[in-house]
Amino acid sequence: MMKKKNPEKYQQIIDATVQLIDRQDVAMVSTTQVAKKVGISQSNIYIYFKNRDDLIKHVFIREVDAMSQFVHDTQVPATDLFGQFASQLDALFQFALQHPTSLNVIQKILRSYSYQHLVAKPDDLNAANAELLVTLKKGQQTGLFKQVDLSLLQNTILSNIKLQADNIHHGKYTAAEQPFERVRQLIFDAILNGSRS
Amino acid sequence: MMKKKNPEKYQQIIDATVQLIDRQDVAMVSTTQVAKKVGISQSNIYIYFKNRDDLIKHVFIREVDAMSQFVHDTQVPATDLFGQFASQLDALFQFALQHPTSLNVIQKILRSYSYQHLVAKPDDLNAANAELLVTLKKGQQTGLFKQVDLSLLQNTILSNIKLQADNIHHGKYTAAEQPFERVRQLIFDAILNGSRS
Amino acid sequence: MMKKKNPEKYQQIIDATVQLIDRQDVAMVSTTQVAKKVGISQSNIYIYFKNRDDLIKHVFIREVDAMSQFVHDTQVPATDLFGQFASQLDALFQFALQHPTSLNVIQKILRSYSYQHLVAKPDDLNAANAELLVTLKKGQQTGLFKQVDLSLLQNTILSNIKLQADNIHHGKYTAAEQPFERVRQLIFDAILNGSRS
Amino acid sequence: MMKKKNPEKYQQIIDATVQLIDRQDVAMVSTTQVAKKVGISQSNIYIYFKNRDDLIKHVFIREVDAMSQFVHDTQVPATDLFGQFASQLDALFQFALQHPTSLNVIQKILRSYSYQHLVAKPDDLNAANAELLVTLKKGQQTGLFKQVDLSLLQNTILSNIKLQADNIHHGKYTAAEQPFERVRQLIFDAILNGSRS
DNA sequence: AATGAATGAGTGTTCATTCAT
DNA sequence: AATGAATGAACACTCATTCAT
What we know:
GO molecular function (chains A, B, C, D): DNA binding
Low-confidence stretches of chain A: none
Number of domains of chain A: 2
CATH class of the largest domain in chain A: Mainly Alpha
CATH architecture of the largest domain in chain A: Orthogonal Bundle
Strand content of chain A: under 5%
Oligomer: homotetramer
Domain HTH tetR-type (chains A, B, C, D): 7-67
Helix content of chain A: 55-70%
DNA-binding region (chains A, B, C, D): 30-49
Number of helices of chain A: 10
Distance between the termini of chain A: 60 Å
Mean pLDDT of chain A: 90
Number of strands of chain A: 0
Keywords (chains A, B, C, D): DNA-binding
Order of helices and strands of chain A: HHHHHHHHHH
Organism (chains A, B, C, D): Lactobacillus selangorensis
């Protein structure tokens, strides 16, 4: 089992699971629901994944990979660290705007499972965040960013980007009414070392 | 049914539920688990709460009330808006430090249930957040705070406060190694209108 | 227990049970429902009845007694057996018309419980039917009624009377559109020995 | 789910349910009891039926179909309406004699559920009764039968046939001691328009 | 590779009954 | 006499998982 003999169906199962997690608590998504959504028999899932947890894990991995790829492809090369950071920020926001489901699912799974449990080799995965984290770490070393724990910087960036994208996605306001520049400014002000002021 | 003649057990049930939600997905907390933790028979729960949902709702209400009370009692009177905001910030951080479980549970339940579903009178409840929101709104009107959607301001404040408290709670670092002043500064910089710089 | 210190409440409990049985399967009527309908606590029922079966039994006894009393009081004295029979028939129909619930409940309980289980002394109870049965038996002995098993005569009488009353009660037709005389004629034709024809 | 790939077990479940309903109130028959009787796990039932209600419904349909088939096959062709009626009567009695459980179960389910709820296409189902009803209706139009509500005619026929069969089945008397001819006569006298007398 | 069948453990919920007060 | 509290057993139903085909 768990061989991906039919890659299409493998993707279909993950797709269905993603959509279900997007709308419900992770814990409420059942293999029955997934199978029904794909239009296959429930036991068929166990040919592609060795159990429910394995399915969730692969969902997580695929979505994180997609995000990494997107961000990597979208960010423009920059000469200095600040430019690189700004570029990553914009890429992440683009991703959040275009793939609100992906980001939502990633965060939901992260909250339900410990990170260790999800990824075997933490390094090569989660490259999107990894690149961001590298930038943030460098920025802290050069005194560009504040000397708070990395998780706070990361959180300030990601949570605000997601919130802005979600608000737009849910029609709370349009991108024109609340331009991303303001959010970017908020994040900059938060992250950057205030020595400038 | 649903009478609360024995307030001790009523509280015990809620306590047990809080601890279980703190450690798992809300959806995974079962009445069986709760009953086992309290040491009563599962059906006994239905004497104190008419539903599983009712139990969760009451957990939410109790925790939110406690937080409101704490913040209300802890914040010191301030002459100007900024002082008031700073005071609220500190009070929230104190709460997050002393009651990390409460904050965690409140956020988890909020994510699973819609706010409308949880509270009958949204106004008088959740006063802690209500007070903060009032302050933020006023600050925006006077030009003190940035003109982004309120939810972003609120998120920047609460998520960073919670993260800092959690990091300390989990032993990632001590309050001495990473003083709250830095987090407060991050929040100030994020929230305040940059016109000052 | 089971003392009827407060006869009012005793009757209230039976009343509520009667109404509930009228609308549901006997097996679906719970002490919880009864207590709620009366406005007392569930355990209170066990002061008046020693268990659920005992309650049902007393419901049955009371309703049967009421029917007996009604029929006994309503039938007019008759000189011959046929006149007596006709009078009983009319009395039963009057009862069915005025107390459709009672008749319904009696039949429902009879179907769920064996008769032996319901009444301790089968003789003195169920006097209404007893009187009818006596009449039928006499009629058979004198050759007035058909020589089929008594239960068939009884069934033909009671089931048709109930059906007619129910149809009227449910608005299927009015007593004017379908006068009882026709039903009485049907019963007479069925019961009476055809030698007359 | 709900596929009927293994027709044997599907029938076994229905058989067990029929026997249980025969002996108890419909409302008291539980999926646990049924499963135990068949010797399968309780959850297995939900592979063959989507609900407890669905199970009951299928029990009803199967029994009614069997009765229809039996009556249809058993009745002999008749030249006139009266002969047809007499033939249907005899067929119904044969069925009641040979399948007392079926008839009992059909009536019990009918009392608990509304007819509409039980069958999708009321017309083609329940053909046994349907044929009888057609005969009765025709008989009323030609003045052969009494002008009472159809339900009374139907009741007089079915209830007496069932009672006679049950009495024999329970050993109250033998078919020799109380020949069906007498019951048939009772029904004829009841149903037929008395103008003959 | 795919499915239907099967199961045991789990869910929330209701029930009849008992008991201390 | 009356009640709230408590419980164990039952219920309908869903789930993740396994297995033979």
